[in-house]
Amino acid sequence: MSLLKRKEKETAEANGSGEAEAVAKPSKGERMGQAKDLAVHHGTHKSIDVAGWVDSRVNATGIFTAMMSRHVPKGTNWFYTLGSATMFIFAMQAITGVFLSMYYTPSATQAYASITHMTNEVFMGEFVRGLHKWGASLMIILIFLHMARTFFFGAYKYPRELNWVIGVVLLILTTVMGLTGYLLPFDQRSFWATIVANNITASGPIVGPYLADFLRAGPDFSATTLSRFYALHMMVIPGLIGALIGAHLFFVVKLGTTAPPWVRAGRPKGSRPEEEVTAGVAREDFDEVPVNGAVAAAASAAEPPVKEAEVDQEDAQAAEAEEVEAKESEETEAAVEPEEPAEEATAEEGSVEEPAADETAPEEPPADPADASDDSDPSGEGEVSS
Ligand code: HEM
Prior knowledge:
single chain; mainly alpha; Cytochrome Bc1 Complex, Chain C; 16 helices; flat; binds protoporphyrin IX containing FE
């Protein structure tokens, strides 16, 4: 008798019904459920949500949301897909490159033979090699088009200069991938073409000869040159490109996407030059106006004086300008010290700023250090806050 049946019989006997055999036989599904309940009860079975477990540790959902649910400015178009297209080709190059490396031999005597073998005899070898070869040219074309897009749309300006610089390094590394890959078949064409490229490199100013020596891996072209190109092409440069693409995308997500130039004329509602750059929020055209305290200072100087209570609390830049001013006046003006007697403060203030002393010399020092007039402030900000 099974464990389950015996348990049912015991239960029925304990209940005094004496009809143990009459108890309906549970179905297979019920028995499975009971077994699972029992296992859970004994702690031998747990339903684990693997995705949730990983997510709670690496915040993959948050990263994915920041990447994919970003606000993009109005007017974005197909030109904005060129960066992603370049990235797609890079991924394709990496995948096809892995398959090619399974059949390639980086030896001066066997490289060409291994390439011929993979092209003519390996299943889909010619197709994969073709993808890799054409992909290299396509990547160069796409990277230039992407660069042109970011240039003509002004995406290289503040605050995206660093991303532009990263892009330039990516461009250089991509061309080096082309150069190093071209030698790998080690046929007549690739051999002589690489010698030409190496000589051109050597003619470069200052670092040119050193760079050419490094690439050649010695005074002459040899088997070592092939090994060096292979290592650079297989490991060093793809690793660098992968890391830099990561940094590039990080900045794209952090800084948002640039609006097309024709959308730029009107600043979108709520977009202020002084706003903090927020992750995943698109930022537009604030590179066309000054972005430091000068903006707030100029704006408040143009406005009539307002009471402190009326100062717009949301204006972060103005608040920052006030803070800076307060610090400066603390450092430079002794009259601001609240412990000082009123007379001393008045006298000293008068010596600092004559017009104020002529009109109404304050009897008490101002409560807020920021209220003290600052002769170094050309914008008259001190008046505004007093
Ligand atoms: C391996 C090469 C590259 C990859 C995979 C790549 C990828 C991307 C992607 C996916 C984006 C966001 C979508 C877009 O705006 O197209 C982007 C944006 C950007 N890229 Fe690249 N990129 C590469 C090379 C370059 C180069 C060579 C430059 C310039 C020299 C550059 C400069 C920029 C800039 C400035 C942005 C920001 C665009 C904006 O805010 O509107 N990138 N890149």
